[in-house]
Amino acid sequence: MINWNIDQKRKEIIKHPASRKVLVAGRRFGKSHLSLMWLLQKEIQAGERRWIVTPTYRQGKATTWKLMRQIFRDYDCQINESELLVRLPNDAEIAIKGAEQENNLRGAGLDMVVMEEYSYIKPHVWDEIIYPTLTTTDGEAFFIGTPNGYDHLYNAYLKGQSDDPDWKSWQYTTVDGGYVPEKEIEKAKAMMDERAFKTEFLASFETTGNRAAYNFDRSIHVKEAKQLTNNLFWGLDFNVDYMSAVLGCEYSDGTVHYFNEIRLTNSNTEEMARAMKKIAPNIPTFPDSAGSARSTTSNRSDHQILKDHGFQVIAKKANPPVIDRLNALNRMLKDANGKIRMSIDPRCINLIKDLEQVQRSRDGKIDKSDIALTHMLDACSYYIAYRHPIINRQPMSVEW
Description:
- α12 crosses α14 and α13 packs across α14.
- The protein has 14 helices and 15 strands.
- Mean pLDDT is 88; it is low at 392-400.
- β6, α5 and β7 (140-145) form a beta-alpha-beta unit.
- The strands form two sheets. An eight-stranded mixed beta sheet has the order 3-4-5-2-6-7-1-8, sandwiched between helices.
- The chain has helices at 8-15, 31-40, 57-62, 64-72, 123-135, 152-160, 182-191, 194-200, 218-221, 269-279, 302-308, 322-333, 349-357, 375-387, and strands at residues 20-25, 49-54, 78-80, 85-87, 93-98, 112-115, 140-145, 167-172, 232-237, 243-250, 256-264, 284-287, 312-316, 342-344, 396-399.
- The longest helix has 13 residues, at 123-135.
- The protein folds into two domains: 8-200, 3-Layer(aba) Sandwich (Rossmann fold), CATH 3.40.50.300; 218-399, Nucleotidyltransferase, domain 5 (2-Layer Sandwich), CATH 3.30.420.
- By secondary structure, the chain is α/β, with parallel strands linked by helices.
């Protein structure tokens, strides 16, 4: 259908006879392009259904759909923008589906399916929903993604390394993809923590358990500062239990030291602002972005209450994705070159507790099941995500 110009490694993946293929690759390898090459490489028969299943509808629309639409726009077919679907004159269907709408995936017989970013799709979506749709058609599946610990993508990769003739797997780094030069990879090493770098660019299966701050080491990071700078700031998380603020400073070399904290129970933003003023008034404050739209107890927003008490509120219009915030925090704790850029005073007992005990949930976000934890980690990482982000996705606002 399409004359793709592809290299030998991609040709091997596409042409291999296994009905279950698994590609584990670094970021920007070109996985989405390759998945479309695989999906469209065979002649499309009348009435066939070929799908790409992405973790969310929104993700599919923002990435793969743009390329699919570009491919089919010059062909005699119907393009449905809202359903992310292309219908050919022979009634064949090529579509992108979001795995979060799992009930919409049931029932339809599929001939080919791509499970894109498979680590971030719940395992039962394949086991209980997609796999049965392939059994009546003897259909094929292609699992692609970047590692996220030893999860179901890892299990699929291992099947592809076994003697099972139905399964075959490949593993490639970002550089192997040919789109990103090695000098850019070296730059990335200084911008990421070691685990994230190995995962994202080397396509390595890494794990440090489920700790959110997996690079935190009490013996390395907990220490008193020899001297503080005048570049002070507050990080702040809004909750009735527990209202949490952490005081830090940043040095000229970009290292950050947290040296005091406030934790209030059954409280509100007004009380927290007064407590912060007693310790360090009129300095920049980096709170949860959601505080611009609501308050814990007042008809004023949390941000407005802080401004009324003389604090400069610095926040993005929306919080960055939690995964990006955790990656930024871990990069400050230790980057891929081994550089330490963050420390904590021993008096910050609640922040240290969070850094040691807060866990990640299955989707890589923060596990909020223990209400006594997470608030100090959030408070300190809002500053990190704003001043030292891994990815800058959101527009910002600075409020007085």
